[in-house]
Amino acid sequence: MDEVAQYERYAGGSPEAERLVFERLARELLRVQLKVKKRSGAASIDRAFHAKAVLGVENARLRFRDDLPEALRAGFARPGAEYPVTVRLSNASGARQPDFAPDLRGAALRVEVGPGETHDLLMTSFPVSHARDAVEFVAFAKAMAGADSRLRKGYALFVKLPLAVGWSTAARMRRNVVAGTRRTVRSLALETYWSRGAILWGDGGPVRYQLRPAVDAPAAPDASRTDPDYLRRELSQRLRQADVVFELCVQRYVDAQRTPVENGAVEWREDVAPVLPVATLTIPHQDIHTAEARACASRVDLLAFNPWHTAEGFRPLGNLNRARKVAYEASSAHRLGRRFLTVEPRRNTVLGVPLRAVFRTVNRFVPWDRLPTPLGLLNLMAFRQTLRRNNLIDTEAHEAPPEPGSVEAPPEEELLVRRSYDGTYNDLSAPRMGAVGATFGRTMPPVYNPNGFDTPNPVTVSRELLRREVFIPATSLNILAAAWIQFQVHDWVKHKRLPVATRSVEVPLPPGDTWQNTPGGPREKVMRFGEDEAVRPSDGGQPPIVFASDVSHWWDGSEVYGSDQAMAMSLREPDGGAGLRLEEGHLPHGANGMPLTGFTDNWWLGLSSMHTLFAREHNALCEALRREYPQMNEDRIYHTARLIVSALIAKIHTVEWTPAILATKTLDIGMRTNWQGPPKSWLDQLGVWLLEANGRQGIPKTLPHHHGAPYSLTEEFVTVYRMHPLIPDDYELVDHRFGRRIDTLDFTALQGASAEPLIRKTGLVNTLYSLGIAHPGAITLHNFPRALQAFQRDGEVIDLSVVDLVRTRRRGVPRYNDFRAGLHKPRIRRFEDLSSDPETVARLRDVYRSVDDIDTVVGLFAENPPAGFGFSDTAFRVFILMASRRLQSDRFLTVDFRPEVYTPLGMDWIERNGMTSVILRHCPELAGVLPRGASAFAPWRPVQPVPNGSGHG
């Protein structure tokens, strides 16, 4: 990069600042494409520019001159070297207009040097750009989009463009455009094409290149004023008779004033930078109307040319070229159906601002949950928009400045209709987005404070504020709700932990205390556990607060199916069968006593019941697919069943679990709106029409939408899902037929390797029944499970409540008061603002010096939640943002949630089923105890015990 630094200057002062500008401009170009499509009435999205191809061939040749100047001999540019070339000649407009319409013309060459090395050369038939930089270029494109008549073009050039860039800039741009388009073009074989931007040419420094017709090229007939395709007909006739030959030439950089790199609107005059021929391009004579030639032209038209398809020694230079990488990748992905843009209706844009302001004012006096239901829903929609605008922070390391590279192969066709094993290619335009190894995002800027890692002492915080003294039940739920959320979290998030022996966190204990860090190990004065592995360790002043997930961020059922191909294949039936391996309906045993399934960390009886149930559901689906589609092979059956199960799980979580734990009418309607659109009442319909018209039929019928930041789950999301108080310490296993107690066990007896023998002995039916009639713990202070405060895991003994506190601090999640402020809630000023319980306030005051020191987890547990809520309103703020994002970002839950991908049977299965029907399919004996008119996560009806020896009365 050092050799180009002398030529380039980054907008915004840094490559990263410039990248953000280019990302915004790329989205604007997608809007241009949509506008052109709408105005033209086209059936599909076309290229943003150069939409109409005049010629597309794959058999051209580029041969470098034998007398190539020494200074220009670099890389593939060697004397006498010859390469195959793909050529596309085109009109420059983004609309497919007649050839006789005023327009520039373009040439795109793809030079195939060898495996992994290509060079795309892009040129236009005027020596300079109408725009000096990317901002001007996009402003012009936006102004001219859809200007398909003389009146509209005049309005665009003389009204819209000056308003966007200023009068003097608009005048200069008009002059360049008029000069470039007013010429009559007789043949594209007789045009000269200029790169307009500079590229590096090895040690020869920056050059601009051009393609000019051979001096002996035959003349062309007069241009037609009536034939819309006369340029293609002329080239066809010319190629039937002879080769079409061009000279590739370069002009070398002189100085920043006369041959600027950053300003594309300044011509490199030939008297300053002489034109030097370097190679000959030959398009051999041929008939371009044969079936083979037409197929070739179609292939060429699908190609995504990009000047960054090149080698490091030939990297493009200058602002316009740097923008082209982002813009061209986005535009081509949009055209090929790999990237999507949701255009917000103007009324939503206009009305959203005052409505958000109104609700900000209303919320100072009346909380959203106390508003009438329609207003509460509108309030939540408005707040979600605020969060989408302000609380999506990307943490991935991006390429800045852009780097050259080879042409990427298109995704495998199978990946268009099935989920990958590791979450790649969900977003086809950004294959690594949300995949295994993708970083956790942020919903607010991190706060990295090493001095506060142990202050106040997390062990003291845990003992004074978290430790369960008396079990506090959540009486509106059953324990299946606790098992379910752990089942889901294991699908979404997993921080990679370093082994204790490699690098550990050491938490000092209060004076006089000791801790046994390993089973049977010595008592120590510190509590020790493995540290999170940061993606980018601390260097250059950057704290290590970016972490990656070991499972994909997508809702893809990875807890059942695994997160890599080897694991997924090992869980399937032998000989490539579509089903999951089960032993008499239960998960098979692994060598370590743990079951064979996609995710087994922190295993216990509740998780086992969920995994067993949905493994059976997968196999039931495989059988149904085999019967319905006998021609479908086992691999397709497996992947289709996985799609259906994953979507069904997403539906259950959205419309059943969430309304169960957030039991209000407003949330019930809100979550069902996410999945299937708003109710039919005119007031609810009006609210969606005013604020989010794109969701009027539910998220699964929309396009994927990331709302300006690549999809990921966030560190704050992980924090609010620390719901360990849901886990009871004691369990009673009960026979579902007679209501008789089978056994009473503590948590230790049903976790880890003990879980599978127990569920096999008890049976899935009795296990589900036992969990279904019992309550989980309430998510509040003084209710953290005792069993998890001395929890054995992977050869360690940990206090999970301390681990939760320490990891949250070390991951840079702000403390509670800053967390509230980051989610647009007022800060608390007194301990009494957090809790109405005098004893809790007294303990908070004893542990923390000020309200600003309160740990996030403690604050979330201490809040008095809205009526019917199972967790705090502050935690719910993160939920508002992420609940819809998990659906709306996912291709398989939006644009590809359709019968062609899922099969008609699959779509019907998802529509008709929920948690209750899944349970009854595999455990029909439970029909009489499941709740009527409520979700399966509400308490079940207990069977009245039958006294021994009694008869019927």
Tags for this entry?
37% helix; alpha+beta; Catalase HpII,  Chain A, domain 1; ten-stranded antiparallel β-sheet
Description of the molecule:
This protein has 953 residues and is of the alpha+beta class. It has a domain at 2-335: Beta Barrel (Catalase HpII,  Chain A, domain 1), CATH 2.40.180.10. It is built from 29 helices and 18 strands. Strands 1, 2, 3, 4, 5, 6, 7, 8, 9 and 10 form a ten-stranded antiparallel sheet that branches. The protein has a two-stranded antiparallel ribbon with strand order 11-14. A hairpin with a 2-residue loop joins strand 3 and strand 4. Helix 16 (634-661) runs antiparallel to helix 17 (665-676). The longest helix has 28 residues, at 634-661. The N and C termini lie far apart (91 Å).
Q: Outline of this structure?
A:
This protein is an alpha+beta fold and 953 residues long. The chain is built from 29 helices and 18 strands.
